[in-house]
Amino acid sequence: MKASLLSAAILATAIVSVTACKKDKSTPNYAKADDFMASHAIKEQSFSGNAAAGFTITGKDGTKVTFSPNAFVDGNGNVVSGNVTVTLKEVLSKKDVLFSGVMTESNGQLLESGGEILVKAQKDGADLRINPALQNDGARVEIPKAMNKKDMGLFVQDKRQQGGATGGNQPQQSPYTWNPAPYYPFGNGPNSYSFSLPSFTWVNCDRFYSDPNPKTTITALPAFQDNNQVTDLQVMLVFKNITTVITLPYDFTVQKFQSYQNSLPIGLQADLIIIGKDSDGYIQFGTQPITISANMHIDAPIHKATQAEVDAFLATI
């Protein structure tokens, strides 16, 4: 009887040990691409106010927009009264830029950003415009200097110039870019940037990045570690010492992800990021630090990544 009890105890201990080993070797918590991107997307904040009286909204990151009385007109140019709905998106960090889809470049030239916002307004589901009769007083904006402390100017999202600033054979690119809006007064205060909102579109507190070093073009390709089909690939550069994030569009001519021609200063440091979605819906992710050199090419490893791995990297940028 004692031997049987001892055997049973040994068997029970073995079962517990095997179970513990199985738990230790559990499947990693790989990140589902769609869920991950949705969780990091720039959130749209919603407000309401009386159009005839005017009102002020304040975003969660400190952006303040003050609408004057009668600041809104409808599609026919009629002044709007009653309650209106205003939405706001704030992009006030390099991580925000990464997930906003609105990168800091102007027709192939690097920009340093002090923050981006998107403001829109509707009444009864119809889009509104800023009252042109109020000129520069319809909507006044203050953006906190959380992302940058340097003096900036106002840029607006606009249709990309024909052929881009560098012309010639350019990679596939977004149809939109940033263009300066020097015709709008812009204030560089000690703690915030202030300006009048030109329209309900993306606006950016920006400056052209100036670097005396020679400029070059770089290319990149993913080096897959998993035997899996990957789609929705994006290649981006998050620069180390400037508030600049750009994408490397895919150039079908060279069949590589490629920067705009002669746009990157040699010696500038950045993190190269590649992100995509595999056929099982998981994130494929890779990153490596680089120092821009003449005509460099990067084969960047990319693999199925866990949520913790990607979040740990994002905490460093």
Any overview of this molecule?
With 317 residues, the protein is mainly beta. The protein folds into two domains: 41-208, Chondroitinase Ac, Chain A, domain 3, CATH 2.60.220; 215-314, Immunoglobulin-like. It has helices spanning 2-24, 33-40, 94-100, 307-314, and strands at residues 45-50, 55-58, 64-67, 72-73, 83-91, 105-106, 109-123, 126-127, 129-130, 139-144, 153-159, 176-180, 186-188, 192-196, 202-208, 215-216, 219-224, 230-239, 245-247, 250-251, 256-258, 264-265, 269-278, 283-291, 297-304. Strands 1, 5, 6, 7, 8, 11, 12 and 15 form an eight-stranded antiparallel β-sheet that branches. Strands 19-18-23-24-25-17-21-20 form an eight-stranded mixed β-sheet. The longest helix has 23 residues, at 2-24. The radius of gyration is 25 Å and the shape is globular.
Mean pLDDT: 88
What is the name of the CATH class of the largest domain? Mainly Beta
Any idea how many domains? 2
Based on the structure given, which CATH architecture of the largest domain is correct? Answer: Sandwich
Number of strands: 25
- Helical segment count: 4
Q: Do you know the CATH topology of the largest domain?
A: Chondroitinase Ac, Chain A, domain 3
End-to-end Cα distance? 65 Å
Please write the string of helix (H) and strand (E) elements: HHEEEEEHEEEEEEEEEEEEEEEEEEEEH
Major sheet description:
8 strands, antiparallel
> Roughly what percent helix?
10-25%
Secondary-structure content class:
mainly beta
Approximate strand percentage: 35-45%
Uncertain spans: 1-24, 162-171
Shape: globular
